[in-house]
What we know:
By secondary structure, the chain is mostly helical. The chain contains 5 helices and 2 strands; from the N terminus they run ααααββα. It is about 55% helix and about 5% strand.
Amino acid sequence: MAINWNHYxxxxxxxxxxxxxxxxxxxxxxxxxxxxxxxxxxxxxxTVLKELVNEKIVECLTPNLRRGKIFGLTANGKxxxxxxxxxxxxxx
Length: 92
């Protein structure tokens, strides 16, 4: 799986983005679950999730729900998470 280094840099530039990607690497979650897990306000979590969705790192898996939306990593997001965990070699 090839990594998009721009996405990796975007995530690593913010500790909140990094924490959310790491939280979603384990399993898809709701914003409330993410906020509780990483000890961040729900409003901040939602704002960062929107940034990650716009960059196509995270996707909403339940877009038709108004409440209780579940978010997960895209293929790009999984590659970034793997790199963060040291599972991909650092060659381009």
